[in-house]
Amino acid sequence: MKRTLLGSSILAALLMAGSFYAGHSPAVAVVNAAAPGSGVDLGGNTRLLRLAVPASGRLGDILRKNATISSGFEVVPRKSIPAALVRATRFDAKGWNDIGVDAVILSTQVGAQVKFQLYETSRGNRPLISKGYPGSDPNKAANRFMNDVVNYYTKTPGVFGSRIAFVRTRRSPTVSKNVYTVEMNGEAPASITNNRSLNILPSIGPGGQVLFTSYAKRNPDLWISKGGAASRISKYPGLNLGGTMSPNGASIAVTLTKDGNSEIYNLDPSGNIKARLTNNKAIDGSPTWSPGSNQIAFVSNRAGGPQVFRMGASGGGAKRLTKKGNYNQSPDWNPGGGALGSLVAYSGRDSSNRYDIFAVDVRSGQLTRLTQSPGRNLSPSWSPDGRMIAFQSTRGGIYVANEKGNNQVQIIKAGSTPDWGPKAY
To answer: What is the CATH number of the domain that holds 206?
Structure first.
């Protein structure tokens, strides 16, 4: 379902012989009109809903972080909220309206549950959403409620709670790379590998399986973790690089060099070869599946420098997708529905030698630039609903943004090659 990076040190060297709401300019989130279900009349002005979350502690911190990541709100700093409103046990529409707040999320501990309520000051004192969740895990409770909030404004549930796989590098006592996953808001990190080898290019399958390439047995083999100890599923001589599982879970596309050249193969979930998908003297790699599992986008240098192509899932009939730029890599096919499902994001080098994230529409060929510096922005990966995107940046670590590249929020300070997995709940 997700892309894997072609531009690893090995294949890059071979190739050289990459919101809820729509916005307008990179790194600035704006709203074009009132969201569906919203009682706030924005009058066509491009501004966010001003949201206040008076809750303290970890729960309040996560709610504010989630609201910021969602791209739908300008979150009011808690320290700027009057003490009387923070301490209030009831919602005071006039009091909140007087300080310029459009919406408020209140939370209350009720026995073993935490009760959340969303209000808008223009709607009076009746909550728009009122739900309770188990209070034992503040992060999970906050995630589930923010998904409710996203659903209220967009009519599509949010994806808070979904996880992103990434690689973290350690340089002492020797250089090692290990695979981790983290929730999309940067919470609840978990280790997939923990060794002194090189474990790279993670990809999360539709059932939460984590595929990755590891040198743990000296050869770059394909491994899979299903929640327990990882197992090796492809160990052909040479590269077994960057496997990615189809959305229907029936196949794994992977780059192999067992016959000398870099080609894309189709494996079954156990690692057995089903078919060879490319057969070209050029270097092919970095496969990513379409939402329907019937097409694959990939990178090839058959046109000179690395460019993104697409082909049918059975191979053959490759067509070039990227027509601009001389170095385009690490594609990821948007898994969302409708028009989103025709977008392929990738990392491209522009005329000033900067790397940024772009998206090309496979139907129209229309090209959109999602990031415009600062730093080098690489390895894009769409969220499971296709309305957000994660990427790594030389500014530091991993960022998430809306599908237009706006509202960029750092979630991991040190990490590379993110891959966004399926919805959690």
So the answer is: 2.120.10.30
